[in-house]
Amino acid sequence: MDDIPSDTESRLVRIERLLESGGREVAPAWRRVTHGEPRWAVTAAILGAVALQLKLPEPLTLLPFGVLPGLEAVLLMGLVAANPRRVEPRNRRLRSLGLALIGLISLANGWAAAQLVRGLVHGTEGSGAAKLLLTGGNIWLTNVIVFALWYWELDRGGPASRMMGHRQFADFLFVQMQSPESAPPDWEPAFLDYLYLSFTNSTAFSPTDVVPLSRWAKMLMMLQSTVSLVTVVLVVARAVNILH
């Protein structure tokens, strides 16, 4: 069996599934109507991003301390109140609310990153190595969460659109989509899959096992890698300089 080519194995698995389903091919979960994914993961990630913003030094905040995190918390409560347990189909107003929430987090973290880079270049930031590394790590981790939220919200029209199977062409190609025999029949991408994609893109500065297919996905991943690379290089370089 070890000598059988992988495509032959895939065909055998497909035939077995056809026999089990009575001769009719069942579409994978990510291509058909399914239940909405549980909300706990994305809610925890947003709360984590809000908590990280509260730890930023005040000179790096866009508005007076606590204003943006407070607004983000209010928007999150509205989304959770509308769909407390699962991400279900929502109207255009709720989708706009979700996009506005992610946009606010992105704006706040982008401003903090820009101010940190500006301060490092002009020598006004980074008087202590430990504080600088903590601030840089804060911005880097928030950046991972922010782009995970964008990937999750935009891939194939968003979680509600994916749940209804409205769009058949994926923006991100996961391994389970290429090799359905390696995943359970009910597998479909959820927020934690996009969080993993965002983390690996921020550490490797390139796609790993998830391939971006659409142009917007490629540009968004390129932007994330750029922000991550600039933040890491400048913060580490300055911290090493301080220690020496």
UniProtKB/TrEMBL annotation:
Keywords: Membrane, Transmembrane, Transmembrane helix. The keyword Transmembrane applies. This is DUF1345 domain-containing protein. The chain crosses the membrane at residues 62-82, 94-112, 132-152, 220-240.
